[in-house]
Specification:
Blueprint (H helix, E strand, L loop, with lengths): L15 H8 L8 E9 L2 E6 L3 E6 L13 E7 L2 E6 L15 E7 L8 E7 L1 E9 L3 E2 L9 E7 L2 E6 L1 H7 L6
Parallel strand pairs: 2-11, 5-7
Antiparallel strand pairs: 1-2, 1-8, 3-6, 4-5, 6-7, 9-10, 10-11
């Protein structure tokens, strides 16, 4: 142990101010955020964990007749009907290879009494990451209009999804 390190007891009548003073100056830390990172097709995406309601194994789906190609179907999540979209549809997902997971995201809508839920098809859920503001890049590729930036994690990049833009690009049925 270092010789210049030693503990000194505080008096019994010490208050919180004395304790904070004994701890020394507070170091400035950049604010942290947590993101859920997942892979859909060949691309990595992420959502703030506050937008993610849960991650599920592939559910039993009901196809929607005459629905758009990106709408995989709908499923029942504890009594709520949730549309499931595949954002990797533009990459030409190989036929016969279904995604394994669903990332259920919820978006607060002011005029509704319930949050709007949407399922996003995911081939792999990589995990959750705590990141600093310097790990977020505010620039996203122009050909991905539903993303607002990129997140640097494990020496890789993940596209940050904006749920409002996602619903503009991939409008699902209003259920």
């Amino acid at each position: 142990m270092s010789e210049d390190f030693h503990l000194e007891p505080l008096p019994a009548d010490a208050d919180t101010g004395d304790l904070l003073e004994a701890l020394g100056p507070i170091e400035e830390r950049p604010p942290e955020s947590q993101y859920c990172v997942f892979r859909s097709g060949r691309e990595r995406f992420c959502l703030p964990v506050l937008d993610v309601e849960e991650v599920l194994d592939w559910p039993l789906l009901t196809k929607v007749p005459l629905g758009p190609a990106y709408l995989v179907g709908i499923f029942n999540l504890r009594g709520a009907i949730v549309p499931l979209i595949d954002i990797a549809i533009t990459e030409g997902r190989r036929p016969g290879l279904l995604p394994k997971h669903v990332v259920v995201a919820s978006l607060r809508v002011e005029n509704h009494h319930e949050d709007l839920r949407i399922g996003i098809a995911s081939d792999e859920v990589i995990g959750t990451y705590s990141v600093n503001t310097e790990d977020l890049l505010e620039q996203a590729p122009e050909n991905v209009p539903h993303c607002i930036g990129m997140l640097r994690h494990d020496d890789r990049l993940a596209l940050v999804i904006d749920l409002r833009r996602l619903l503009e690009v991939f409008p699902g049925p209003s259920i």
